[in-house]
Specification:
The chain is of the alpha/beta class and about 270 residues long. It has 2 domains: about 10-65, Vcp-like ATPase, Chain A, domain 2 (Roll); about 70-255, 3-Layer(aba) Sandwich (Rossmann fold). The protein is about 25% helix and about 30% strand. The protein has a 7-stranded mixed β-sheet with strand order 9-8-7-10-11-15-12, sandwiched between helices. A 4-stranded antiparallel β-sheet has the order 2-1-6-5, covered by helices on one side. Strand 5 and strand 6 form a beta hairpin. Helix 3 packs parallel to helix 4. The longest helix is centred in the middle third of the chain and has 20 residues, at about 130-150. The two termini are about 40 Å apart. Bound molecules: S-adenosyl-L-homocysteine. S-adenosyl-L-homocysteine binds near residues 108, 109, 125, 127 and 128.
């Protein structure tokens, strides 16, 4: 069934060179580029894939942005977590609809968007009020009111403690995740999962040392590399450039204390 583009919706306009622009459609709105003007009226009521011409004849195709499209183009103050890592975090933390998740720090809200869209009930702790506002606005802008009702950001320091109880998941992207381990032990239910994203392996190693003396078990640290390919006729090869480093993902489950601990699984997940 066709689902025409409506005023108020976000669309991604793709030009003939593959450049992409994120635009909110408005009645009477105009999209101005170096290559002329596209009236929003040319797009409203059309299906995704609609291709229109600007006043100078340049071609633009409209599609709804995916979550990954939005995350890479939304207004942001802090460095966001890349889509390849967002996807991995959702499965490492095994986020399910209705799961109760504490996220800290929230930054621009890229990870929040992924968690909330997976159906979780998310409480964010964020030190900076401007970031907390920005993240809240980004979640509401992309996911709408229903989803925004499952997302709340508090301006506070997660190193000082976690007030939530019976959490299913704790997901961290901040400089010293090891400072949260004790608080997470008290706030997660048994079987709960902690996941931390850290740009530096020194942070991951320090976190692992603290996890090893905690009630968390089954700790693992993983790095995901994504290499895109150039595919054109006979020229089929990896792209020359890649985002070679983003961060390390460390996860563990609250199970202890278990005398002697659990051995790491033989098959990595
Ligand atoms: N994951 C986010 C980016 C987080 S950037 C995204 O994908 O968009 C790290 C954030 O942690 C920053 O906004 C910083 O203000 C916040 N932060 C750092 N220490 C913190 C603490 N102790 N408690 C709460 N937030 C903290």
């Amino acid at each position: 069934m066709s689902r025409p583009l409506l005023a108020g919706e976000r669309v991604l306009l793709v030009d003939s060179k593959g450049r992409q622009y994120l635009v909110v459609l408005e009645d009477g709105g105009q999209f101005h580029t170096h290559a002329g003007i596209v009236g929003h009226a040319q797009l409203i009521g059309e299906d995704e894939g609609a291709t229109v011409r600007s006043t100078t004849g340049a071609r633009y195709t409209a599609i709804r942005p995916t979550l990954a499209d939005f995350v890479l183009r939304m207004p942001r103050d802090a460095q966001v977590i890349y889509p390849k890592d967002l996807g991995a975090i959702l499965l490492l933390a095994d986020v399910t609809p209705g799961a109760r998740v504490l996220e800290a720090g929230v930054g621009s809200g890229a990870l929040s968007l992924a968690l909330v869209r997976a159906g979780a009930e998310v409480v964010g702790y964020e030190l900076r009020p401007d970031f907390a506002r920005r993240a809240t606005a980004n979640v509401a802008a992309f996911l709408g009111e229903e989803a925004a009702g499952r997302y709340r950001v508090e301006e506070r320091d997660v190193y000082a403690g976690i007030d939530e109880a019976d959490l299913d998941r704790v997901v961290l992207d901040l400089p010293e995740p090891w400072q949260v381990v004790k608080h997470a032990e008290g706030a997660l239910r048994p079987g709960g999962i902690l996941v931390a994203y850290t740009p530096s392996i020194m942070q991951a190693a320090h976190l692992r040392e603290v996890l090893a003396t905690s009630d968390f078990e089954l700790a693992q640290t993983v790095e995901h590399l994504a290499r895109t390919w150039h595919v054109e006729g006979q020229a089929v090869r990896p792209d020359h450039r890649m985002v070679a480093h983003t961060g390390f993902l460390t996860s563990a489950r609250l199970l202890g204390p278990i005398p002697g601990g659990l051995k790491a699984p033989k098959v990595p997940s």
